[in-house]
Write a structure and sequence with these properties.
Length: 1004
């Protein structure tokens, strides 16, 4: 182990807040650096008793911090034992400090210098671990890492819960552990500060009270109520416990005590607008209702509905609830200029209750400060979550707009809180917005060019996308900062480009992922990135404080950002542009099961996505020979055996993990689910480097086709780098180098780079998603439709073709592309094409293939057909001759030698013709009979054969003869002289042209 430093301090602080006062929030030092500490440096096992407040440490040594040995900068040198080669692993330290009013402290900040590791306890409760493993700590537990400069001389920071403070004596207890028995140095120093707001009503102050069991109704709550006849006494008020400053009456009967006792307290506020937040701390036994200026603001251990003087508390309280202060935030808008009144009614849970207790403190915050963030969460094309933390409870306002100074839209939450979370909705995809966070009256952060976000593009829309990937970045040291700065230099200056999103691969905040550890390792380390790019974290094995993890992050559980609902923040999915991201959990054994809920969800999620790219990430890698071994570590083994097959079957392209503090990158793999020794060549889809300037990028079909290959990356060296065997045969490269990953995805190309802490590119590769060639069509048929046309039809067997390419041949061997037709039938449908302009009586051969941007399929079967013969020439010299009232004879000249016959057409108007007959080959006449008399008929005709019809002949017409007139009757002959006979008859016709008269001398 190398150099180390240590700081610890003591400051006795007595905070008297018994009087009403106002002022600004102030930072107070409770324990200063360089203060005196008691310490035990004899190598003994102190178990756990030494952590307690009441432990007797009077026999321990005393010395000022910095305490330690081996560096030369110690104020107090402690002993490491008799052997420099076998030093004591653990040294113990204790420091007492006094707090008069613990409720006056709104927040605590601990800053610790330790070499190598330390565990800190406040009043017997563990509050912080730094560079120490999880689980039970004993006096032989080694720190996991030997620290060197700058880590060993840096103060690590965390926030503590101020509720752990007590009135009076408080004790900090610290155990410092070496990473090895031959470590050369040890260091400890510590600083504890408190942020103290303005006190409007202090704990222990005087209250007016009414303890006569009367029914006060509701009038007593009002500001102007006359309470001059009420008693006065300092809190704590009550009876039965012996710790009361003022004992109130319970009435004449100890078995039938008054249920309700009333309290009122006036305080002055000169300017309520100065206050952005109020915090109420209430001690009550059993229940209480609190009113501020006549408005109910808080109930504790009381039922809902109307409260009367006989209403009992919901439960009977006992220790520790009856001696604990409960806390809530109030709306500062309830404050009035001048006199304000707090009115409290305390209710017993039973008329025979043995005790009653009441105390209250009200503190105001005149200038809330952002202590975390703002940071962006769960970005979608139309929404984003903005979060931040303040040191005082305030309302929550986010203002946003198209440019700084034009933040014209606001979203607000009126509830006062220190944990602010506002969701902006109705945003435009792929659009830059500027924003600020603050209160209704004041901007706390933002409204300048550094505070902006860019919404995600519409799902499935390709967009050049940059992703930053950090693994095991949770040690807040110089290592993490130089890795960060190397990326900032790349993306801000060398390749100016916005970071669209960033991923953390777990172990994001050592040692347990507490809220305080996240503050130092994430929020203090990456504030610039957090406020302009959405962070999507995975949990690691050091995220043991899941309450902190789930409260810090807002992650999708119901497919809010795309993907499939997971109903948990341990694992989830989301979409960005044409990329589907899947975050998995490798820490929970149930989640690593092949039949578990996560595995089932993963299968459904993969089946549902239609994105071009799938990137999965989690903590424990399936392949590693770094600081962890995937052949021996059960979490790595189970992820490989149970989860990786699901991913590969779902077409995942890239897997990112951490855990091993190194960089390892695989070939393009598929199907390797066993130990490293079971890898065979067929499991390596591409054994090249994946480098476009080397032996080429890794290529895959576009889409989610299963088992086309996946690249696996271990990138767990963003804050520490450790050597390993680095001999896994699946890996193309492996190294113990600090760094982070940069992913650039554009269309069908993913470029990945490992960027070292000094800004060098230590590895790089490219994945190209090429469109999969479609399946070949089948069942091609060719049918002659005419002497110049053959009709084709085939079965479509693909769903990803862009077109069909049709080739033709005259000999069945040499084919030429003649056409490309669009895909329209869909898988299982039939596609048709008519090939026209062909030669008559000719055999043509055909084949077809499907095509897309990835190339062409195989060809279909070959089909052939012969075009029909050429149609005959048209007949000529058509004539039409009426031969009777019902018959017209046609005649023509045969103009062809290849007809099969002639088609005769007739019309009565010379326009609309109807075929009336066909006559055989070489026939040149036709008699049309059965016609109407005295009617004009028009005729045309054409020759025909199997190749079709000829053109029409010329048109000819004729009119049928009229019908003969009816016979005359009644013929009479009358001699009128020797030389004349007169004839007479009856005319029975109307269409005669005349009469013909015949004569005979013999009647025959």
């Amino acid at each position: 182990m190398l150099r180390g430093h240590l700081f610890l301090a003591l400051l006795f602080v007595v905070c008297s807040l018994l009087a009403v006062q106002s002022g600004s929030t102030a930072t107070m030092t409770l324990v200063a650096q360089g203060s005196a500490w008691r310490y035990l440096d004899n190598g003994t096992n102190q178990g756990t008793a030494w952590r307690a407040t009441g432990f007797n440490d009077s026999a321990w040594n005393v010395g000022n911090a910095q305490l330690g040995y081996g560096d030369g900068d110690e104020a107090t040198v402690v002993s490491y034992g008799p052997s420099s080669g076998n030093k004591y692993i653990t040294t113990y330290f204790r420091h007492s400090f006094a707090v008069a009013d613990a409720s006056a402290h709104q927040s605590l900040t601990l800053r610790l210098l330790r070499d190598d590791g330390a565990v800190v306890y406040l009043n017997g409760t563990e509050v912080f671990r730094s560079n120490m493993p999880g689980g039970t700590i004993t006096y032989t537990t080694l720190a996991p890492t030997a620290l060197d400069d700058p880590e060993e001389s840096a103060l690590v920071q965390t926030s503590l819960n101020p509720d752990l403070l007590v009135n009076g004596t408080n004790v900090l207890a610290v155990e410092v552990h070496q990473a090895a028995a031959n470590s050369s140095d040890l260091s400890l120093d510590l600083k504890l500060t408190a942020d103290d707001p303005s006190t409007l009503v202090g704990v222990g102050t005087a209250w007016k009270y009414l303890d006569n069991g009367s029914n006060q109704g509701t009038a007593w709550r009002a500001t102007g109520f006359n309470d001059s006849a009420w008693n006065v006494g300092n809190a704590q008020l009550g009876y039965g416990d012996g710790d009361e400053a003022t004992v109130v009456s319970y009435g004449p009967n100890s078995n039938n005590k008054y249920i309700t006792t009333y309290f009122r307290r006036s305080f002055d506020v000169a300017d309520p607008s100065l206050y952005e937040g109020l915090t109420l701390r209430l001690l009550r036994d059993d229940g209480a209702v609190v009113y501020l200026n006549g408005t109910e603001v808080f109930r504790s251990n009381m039922p809902g509905g109307t409260i009367s003087y006989t209403t009992r508390a919901s439960t009977l309280l006992d220790v520790p609830e009856e001696v604990a202060f409960v806390q809530t935030s109030l709306n500062p808008g309830l404050l009035a200029n001048g006199t304000n009144v707090l009115a409290v009614e305390v209710h017993q849970g039973s008329a025979s209750s043995g005790d009653l207790s009441f105390d209250l403190g009200l503190i105001g915050f005149t200038s809330a400060i952002v202590t975390r963030g703002p940071y962006l969460q769960m970005g979608t094309p139309t929404s984003v979550v903005v979060r931040w933390r303040t040191d005082a409870a305030t309302d929550s306002w986010v203002r946003y707009g198209p440019s700084p100074g034009s933040l014209l839209t606001a979203v607000a939450d009126a509830v006062s809180t220190t944990e602010h979370e506002v969701t902006l909705t109705g945003l435009t995809p792929n659009t830059q917005y500027y924003y600020s966070v603050g209160t209704a009256t004041r901007t706390l952060e933002g409204n300048n060019p550094d505070y902006f976000f860019i919404t995600a593009p519409a799902p499935g829309s390709p967009k050049p996308t940059r992703v930053w990937v950090l693994g095991d970045s949770g040690t807040p040291s110089i290592n993490a900062s130089v890795v960060r700065d190397a990326y900032y230099n790349l993306t801000d200056f060398l390749e100016p480009r916005h970071t669209d999103l960033w991923l953390m691969l777990g172990d994001n905040a050592y040692d347990a992922g507490t809220d305080g550890e996240y503050q130092v390792a994430v929020f203090d380390m990456y504030p610039e990135m957090l406020r302009k790019s959405c962070l999507w974290p995975a949990r690691g094995n050091h995220e043991t404080d899941m309450t902190a993890y789930q409260s810090i992050f807002t992650l999708p559980t119901s497919a809010e950002a795309g993907g499939t609902a997971s109903d948990t923040e341990r694992y989830y999915s989301f979409d960005y542009a044409n990329i589907h991201f899947i975050c998995l959990d490798s820490d929970d054994p149930a989640d690593r099961s092949a039949t578990g809920t996560m595995a089932t969800w993963l299968q459904n999620d993969l089946a549902a996505t239609t994105q071009d790219w799938i990137i999965a990430y989690w903590h424990a890698p399936p392949y590693s020979k770094g600081s962890h071994d995937s052949d021996t570590d059960i979490d790595l083994i189970e992820m490989r055996e149970n989860i990786v097959p699901i991913l590969e079957n779902g077409g995942v392209d890239l897997v990112l993990c951490g855990h091993s503090h190194s960089y390892e990158r695989s070939f393009l793999l598929d199907g390797h689910y066993g130990m490293s020794g079971t890898l065979i060549p067929s499991m390596i889809k591409d054994s090249g480097s994946g480098r476009e300037d080397g032996d080429g990028a890794y290529t895959k079909p576009l889409g989610t086709e299963p088992h086309q290959g996946t690249v696996y990356v271990v990138a767990g060296s963003s804050s520490k780098a450790e050597e390993g065997w680095f001999n896994h045969p699946a890996m193309f490269t492996a190294q113990a180098t600090l760094g982070s990953m940069v992913l650039d995805i554009e269309g069908n190309r993913l470029r990945a780079r490992f960027l070292s802490n000094i800004g060098t590119i230590e590895d790089y590769f490219t994945l190209v998603k090429e469109t999969a060639t479609p399946t070949a069509p089948s069942n091609l048929t060719a049918t002659a439709a005419s002497s110049s046309q053959i009709d084709l039809a085939w079965a479509d067997n693909a769903d990803n073709e862009d077109s069909f390419e049709i080739e033709r041949s005259l000999d069945g061997t040499t084919f030429t592309l003649i056409a490309a037709v669009g895909a329209s039938a869909g898988t299982g449908g039939t596609v048709t094409y008519a090939d026209t302009g062909l030669s008559a009586s000719t055999i043509y051969y055909y084949r077809v293939r499907a095509a897309n941007s990835g190339g062409g399929s195989g060809f279909s079967n070959t089909a052939n057909a012969a075009t029909l013969a050429a149609p005959p020439d048209a007949p000529t010299n058509l004539t039409a001759t009426a031969v009777s009232a019902s018959q017209i004879d046609l005649a023509w000249t045969d103009g062809a030698s290849n007809e099969d016959g002639f088609k005769v057409e007739r019309s009565t108007d010379g326009t609309s013709f109807t075929q009336i007959a066909t006559v055989g080959v070489n026939v040149a006449s036709y008699s049309d009979t059965g016609l109407s008399a005295a009617t004009t008929y028009y005729y045309r005709m054409r020759a025909y054969n199997a190749g079709g019809d000829s053109a029409y002949s010329d048109t000819a017409d004729a009119t049928t003869l009229p019908l003969p007139p009816g016979d005359p009757s009644g013929l009479a002959a009358t001699a009128v002289s020797s030389s004349q006979i007169d004839l007479a008859w009856t005319d029975n016709s109307s269409n005669e042209d005349g009469f013909k008269v015949e004569r005979s001398t013999d009647g025959t």
